[in-house]
Design a protein that fits this description.
The complex is a heterodimer of chains A (about 260) and B (about 400). Chain A has one domain. Helices cover about 85% and strands about 0% of the residues of chain A. Chain A contains twelve helices and no strands. The longest helix of chain A has 30 residues. Chain A starts with a helix and ends with a helix. Chain B has about 400 residues and is mainly β. Chain B has a 25-stranded parallel β-sheet that branches. A 13-stranded parallel β-sheet of chain B has the order 3-6-9-12-14-17-20-23-26-29-32-35-38, with no helix packed on it. In chain B, helix 2 links the parallel strand 1 and strand 2. Chain B is elongated and about 85 Å long. The two termini of chain B are about 35 Å apart. The chains are: A mainly alpha (about 260), B mainly beta (about 400). Chains A and B meet through helix 3, helix 7, helix 8, helix 9 and helix 10 of A and helix 4 of B.
């Protein structure tokens, strides 16, 4: 597995897209810090970008890589190697390279601007952790979709739809149900609804450290009590881990049955 | 220099009015403040020397000066009120008064003033108080350079720092207030000035006005108070150059305005409050040159607010700039700076060419369904905000800033 991981990783590291992705974040980081003299505001802008863009890039990269390397994968499959190991290697390779681009791309400008001296370091590292989680989650989801769909175009379509659903439509449904069931106590509902979507969960995790915390307490004491504490934080992290593990399990399950 | 002047002043007064000075100390003939007051006459000066005086319920009904030297401490031993003035023309200076008793039925205070005229309370340090200064039915008082602190835990078991009930022409300045229920509380107070005070970490409000007309407060700092500053049921209040900071909590605001008429609010700074200004039933108020920085809501208008004018304010990096719960709008917004403004200025006159809509659809939804706040900064919310901006349906369509300024206005 390590060999395959290494191969996919180096393969991606050599590819143009990794560089473009890395440079994009690098530029974004520098421009944001240059334009915003307020670092905490820069973190909010970054959050807006990370929670939308990281999943999108992860999804597209995952699907693209799977379809592009079908032939090579088939070649590998002919060898006496465990299937799981091949795909897990590829999966971890992609996720790692994307995460590396993200962490380095944003880390370098922030380091250059003397982030370590400021108190924002914790918020920023949380941002990177959440971004990395999103990478792992969405690449895994993308692999699931690609494994289940032979047709390339369909696969891409489903992947984009999945992203669109989790990033936009889910929140729409969430909001409508909140407005519709206005008369009922909605604290627990919104808590659970947030947990079920990794993008929402990441957003809340970061926002609670930034501007939302007091605003939320305005009504949803339950919400604040839960996320405000260390246990809530730990639990959220646990849910994010769960969001990585679940698609991987399904991937392995699918692999056992799939006829290549 | 000032000190010498005061000394000189007292030097002359002691000679000209032939008032005497009574010294209080452990080795003096007069050993307690109560004894000193018994023998004192109008115009006398009681000097309390260094030492701890365990006394309470000291009633002073003569026009005298009570001066504490450095290290003079009056300890009430948590039993009740400590000094009570029932006279005109008195001065109290430099005393340190500690440990006022707490009661749920009686307002014990470190210094209580009843029906007095022309008095000065200055340079006193009041620690662990229930009420600090409690002034009733008085006129023409100067309260300055005092440090008042309490360490109360709940609203019910705590009192106010400077509590004035039914007074007029008071000057309250350069005081430090902390750990109390309300830092400064005014009820039925007229023609008074409150300035350069620092009121922080109080359980309820930093400053609280009730039924108090024609007052001015300026250059004060209100920081980290439970709920901020409240101005209620008052007319003709001027508030300027104050700082409202870090009033951050589930039911906090920088400034709460309730039933206020004809007020002027200018050059204030609202920084990192949950709600910068919360207005209910405010009419004819001019908000000018204020800065709203990183608040949850910069301004929340709850209803029955008419003919308010918001001009030349800076709205910077607030989570939500403005919240309205009605579709009707009778207030005007003009020439403000909005950090969220995305318009352009083609003719380079410093004024944006397209109007700005400060009320977003999302802030309207949050008003209806507070739980929806969970979706703050999500992509979906950005999308609906954008569509509402293009064609307003839910938010008041006449609520716009026609001439948004492109650059930050105030320093």
């Amino acid at each position: 597995m390590l060999k395959i991981l290494k191969y996919s990783f180096y393969d991606l590291m050599r590819s143009r897209w990794s560089y473009v992705y890395f440079l994009f974040y690098l530029l974004l980081g520098f421009v944001l810090l240059f334009l915003n003299n307020d670092v905490s505001k820069a973190v909010i802008t970054l959050m807006n970008i990370i929670i939308v863009l990281t999943p999108l890039i992860g999804t597209i990269f995952g699907v693209m890589y799977y379809y592009n390397s079908t032939e090579f994968t088939e070649l590998l499959l002919a060898q006496p190697i465990n299937r799981n190991k091949i795909f897990m290697g590829q999966y971890i390779g992609i996720s790692l390279s994307l995460t590396l681009s993200l962490v380095l791309g944003l880390g370098i400008p922030f380091m250059a601007y003397g982030l370590f001296k400021s108190s924002i370091i914790f918020d920023f590292s949380l941002l990177l952790v959440v971004g990395s989680f999103l990478n792992f989650i969405f690449v895994a989801l993308a692999y699931n979709i690609a494994l289940s769909t032979e047709n390339k175009i369909k696969g891409f379509g489903y992947a984009i739809l999945m992203w669109l659903f989790l990033a936009v439509i889910y929140d729409g449904i969430f909001l409508i149900s909140l407005v519709f069931f206005n008369e009922y106590p909605l604290d627990k509902f919104s808590l659970i609804a947030t947990m079920l979507n990794p993008i929402d969960l990441s957003r809340i995790l970061i926002l609670l450290k930034l501007d939302i915390s007091a605003l939320l307490g305005y009504t949803g004491a339950v919400f604040r009590k839960f996320f405000g504490t260390n246990i809530g934080m730990l639990f959220s992290m646990f849910v994010l881990v769960f969001w990585v593990i679940l698609p991987i399990l399904r991937m392995n399950f699918k692999l056992k049955k799939k006829d290549f | 220099m000032m000190k010498y002047k005061i000394l000189l002043f007292f030097f002359f007064t002691t000679f000209t009015i032939s008032a005497k000075q009574i010294e209080v100390c452990e080795t003096c003939t007069v050993k307690s403040i109560k004894e000193a007051i018994k023998i004192a006459e109008t115009g006398d000066e009681i000097v309390v020397k260094k030492g701890i005086y365990k006394e309470n319920n000291i009633i002073i009904n003569k026009s005298i000066s009570l001066i504490g030297e450095k290290g003079a401490v009056v300890d009430g031993e948590d039993t009740g009120g400590i000094i009570i003035f029932e006279a005109d023309n008195f001065t109290i200076r430099g005393l340190k008064i500690i440990n006022v008793g707490m009661s749920y039925t009686i307002d014990y205070a470190a210094i209580k003033v009843i029906k007095a005229k022309n008095f000065i309370i200055e340079d006193c340090i009041l620690e662990n108080v229930f009420f600090g200064l409690l002034i009733e039915k008085s006129k023409n008082g100067i309260i300055r350079n005092n440090r008042i602190s309490g360490n109360r835990k709940s609203e019910a078991s705590s009192g106010n720092g400077i509590h004035i009930w039914d007074g007029s022409e008071m000057e309250v300045y350069n005081n430090q207030l902390t750990g109390l229920r309300d830092g400064i509380y005014f009820e039925f107070v007229k023609q008074s000035v409150v300035f350069e005070n620092n009121s922080h970490n109080n359980i309820r409000y930093g400053l609280h006005f009730m039924f108090s007309n024609n007052n001015i407060y300026h250059h004060n700092e209100f920081k980290n108070n439970g709920a901020g500053v409240a101005v209620m049921f008052s007319k003709f209040i001027t508030m300027h150059h104050n700082t409202f900071k870090l009033n951050w909590g589930s039911a906090s605001y920088g400034l709460l305005l309730k039933e206020i008429y004809d007020a002027e609010i200018y050059n204030n700074l609202f920084e990192e409050n949950t709600i910068g200004i919360n207005g209910e039933g405010c009419t004819r108020i001019n908000y000018k040159n204020n800065t709203f920085l990183r608040n949850g809501w910069a301004i929340k208008i709850a209803g029955a607010c008419y003919a308010n004018i918001f001009e030349k304010n800076d709205f910077m990096h607030n989570s939500l700039d403005l919240s309205y719960n009605t579709k009707k709008n009778d207030n005007s917004f003009n020439n403000n700076y909005w950090s969220e403004y995305t318009g352009y200025d083609l003719d380079k006159n410093g004024i944006g060419d397209i109007p700005y809509r400060p009320v977003k659809l999302f802030s309207y939804i949050v008003n209806k369904t507070p739980e929806a706040l969970v979706l703050l900064r999500s992509l979906f919310v950005d999308i609906i905000n954008f569509s509402e901006k293009v064609s307003p349906v839910f938010t008041p369509d006449d609520l716009t800033d026609e001439n948004p300024i492109m650059k930050k206005i105030n320093d």
